[in-house]
C-alpha cells in the first residue's frame, strides 16, 4: 500500500492496523534541541482516547505512547522520531459475521476492489484507529510551532442541531463530552445522542478548528497553498466528506462588498475588520486566525439492517455489532487539531527554508 505519508519538510508516516498488535508513526524533519517527552504527546492522545463516556465507542484503549527514537536526554536530536502505541482491547470476533460482507458507506467495497484482500477486523488500515498516531504526531508538531500559535477545535453541529455562535465560549469546550463551545447546545446534544445511541444508529457532525497567532506569509500561491494543504489534510481523516475555509460555502450568498475583509491600521499594524477568508489570502496566511471546518459523515457501522452484497457477488443484508461511535465527529476534534498542527509546522519550516 502506497501513500502512508504526508508533509514535505515536517513529514509523518503512519503504520499499523486497527486489530494488529500495535500502531505507530515516524516523524521526520523535526529540528534538533526541542524539548520533548512522552507526556507532551499523551495529553493530546488522552483527549482522543475511546471509551471515556457513553457517546463514544466503548473500546478500552489506554493509548500509551512510547518514543522509540529521535529523543535523547529530553530533547530532539534531529533524527526521525519513532512513536508506537500497543493495541490492548481488540475484539476481532465482533466482525466474524460480516467478514464476507461490505458495509454500505464504508471503505470495505473499494478497499477490496483495489487490493483484492482486506483486514475485516475493524477495517484494518482504513479504521479510524490509525488517527491516534496523527494525534501523537500533532503533539510533536506543536513543539515545532511553539507557544505563540494556539490551536482550538470545537464541535459546532451534530445532526441538524447547530451551536449559537453568540454563545461561543472557549472555556466551555473542555467542560462537556462534545467539545461544544455553547453550554446550552451541549445539553440538547446529550439528549439527542442518547436517542441515536440507544437506537443503534449514528449521526454526522461538523468540526471547526482555529489557529491563532499564525504569522503572515505561510504558504505559496500556486501548488503550495496553505488552504489547499489544510483541505487535503482534513479530507484525509476517516469519514470526512467536506472542508471549508473561513466563511466557506456561505460566501456564495455574500456580495463583494460584504465578503471583502477590509484592512485598516491599528497599533501600527494591519488590522482586518472581518475574516471571511479564514486567515488565508491567495494561498498565503494573512496573520489572522486560520479557520477550517470539516464535516464527518455518520458512522457506517450500525445495528439497522441495510442492503449490501458479499465477496461472492450475492445480494444480502448486513448489520454491524460491536463497539462503535454513535457520532464519530466527537473524537474527530483532537484529530482535526493535530492535522492543523502538522500542516502549520510543515509550512513554517518550508517558509523558513525559502525566506529565512
List keywords for this structure.
356 residues; alpha+beta; 5-stranded antiparallel sheet
Describe the structure.
With 356 residues, the chain is α+β, with helices and mostly antiparallel strands. It has 7 helices and 18 strands. It has helices at residues 38-48, 108-115, 131-145, 183-198, 226-235, 256-259, 329-355; strands at 5-6, 11-16, 22-28, 65-69, 71-72, 75-76, 81-86, 150-158, 161-162, 205-212, 240-245, 263-266, 269-272, 280-281, 284-285, 290-296, 306-309, 315-318. A 5-stranded antiparallel β-sheet has the order 1-2-3-7-4, with helices on one face. A 5-stranded antiparallel β-sheet has the order 9-8-10-16-11. The chain has a two-stranded antiparallel sheet with strand order 5-6. The relative contact order is 0.17.
Q: What's the mean pLDDT score?
A: 92
C-alpha Rg, in Å?
21 Å
Please identify the structural class as seen in this structure. Answer: alpha+beta
Sequence of strands across the biggest β-sheet: 1-2-3-7-4
Helix content: 25-40%
Major sheet attributes: 5 strands, antiparallel
The string of secondary-structure elements, in order, is: EEEHEEEEHHEEHEHEHEEEEEEEH
How many helices? The count is 7
**Poorly predicted runs:** none
Tell me the fraction of residues in β-strands, as a range: 15-25%
How far apart are the first and last residues' alpha carbons, in Å?
36 Å
> How does the overall form come out from the CA principal axes?
globular
- Total strand segments: 18
Amino acid at each position: 500500500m502506497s501513500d502512508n505519508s504526508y508533509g514535505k519538510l515536517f513529514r509523518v508516516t503512519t503504520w499499523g492496523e486497527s486489530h494488529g498488535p500495535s500502531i505507530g508513526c515516524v516523524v521526520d524533519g523535526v529540528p534538533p534541541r526541542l524539548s520533548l517527552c512522552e507526556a507532551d504527546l499523551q495529553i493530546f492522545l488522552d483527549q482522543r482516547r475511546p471509551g471515556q463516556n457513553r457517546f463514544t465507542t466503548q473500546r478500552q484503549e489506554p493509548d500509551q505512547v512510547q518514543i522509540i527514537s529521535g529523543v535523547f536526554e529530553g530533547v530532539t536530536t534531529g533524527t526521525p522520531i519513532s512513536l508506537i502505541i500497543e493495541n490492548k482491547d481488540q475484539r476481532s470476533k465482533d466482525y466474524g459475521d460480516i467478514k464476507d460482507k461490505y458495509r454500505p458507506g464504508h471503505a470495505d467495497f473499494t478497499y477490496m476492489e483495489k487490493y483484492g484482500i482486506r483486514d475485516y477486523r475493524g477495517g484494518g488500515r482504513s479504521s479510524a484507529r490509525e488517527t491516534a498516531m496523527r494525534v501523537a504526531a500533532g503533539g510533536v508538531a506543536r513543539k515545532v510551532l511553539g507557544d505563540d500559535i494556539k490551536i482550538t477545535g470545537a464541535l459546532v453541529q451534530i445532526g441538524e442541531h447547530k451551536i449559537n455562535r453568540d454563545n461561543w465560549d472557549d472555556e466551555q469546550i473542555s467542560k462537556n463530552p462534545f467539545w461544544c463551545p455553547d453550554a446550552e447546545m451541549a445539553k440538547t446534544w446529550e439528549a439527542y445522542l442518547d436517542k441515536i445511541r440507544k437506537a443503534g444508529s449514528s449521526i454526522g457532525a461538523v468540526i471547526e478548528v482555529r489557529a491563532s497567532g499564525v504569522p503572515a506569509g505561510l504558504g505559496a500561491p500556486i501548488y503550495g497553498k496553505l488552504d489547499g494543504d489544510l483541505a487535503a489534510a482534513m479530507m484525509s481523516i476517516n469519514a470526512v466528506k467536506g472542508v471549508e475555509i473561513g466563511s466557506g460555502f456561505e460566501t456564495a450568498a455574500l456580495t463583494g462588498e460584504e465578503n471583502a475583509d477590509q484592512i485598516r491600521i491599528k497599533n501600527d499594524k494591519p488590522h482586518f475588520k472581518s475574516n471571511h477568508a479564514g486567515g488565508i489570502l491567495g494561498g498565503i496566511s494573512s496573520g489572522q486566525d486560520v479557520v477550517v471546518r470539516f464535516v464527518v459523515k455518520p458512522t457506517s457501522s450500525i445495528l439497522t439492517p441495510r442492503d449490501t452484497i458479499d465477496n461472492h457477488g450475492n445480494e444480502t443484508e448486513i448489520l454491524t455489532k460491536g463497539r462503535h461511535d454513535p457520532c464519530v465527529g466527537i473524537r474527530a476534534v483532537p484529530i482535526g487539531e493535530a492535522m492543523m498542527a502538522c500542516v502549520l509546522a510543515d509550512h513554517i519550516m518550508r517558509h523558513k527554508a525559502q525566506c529565512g
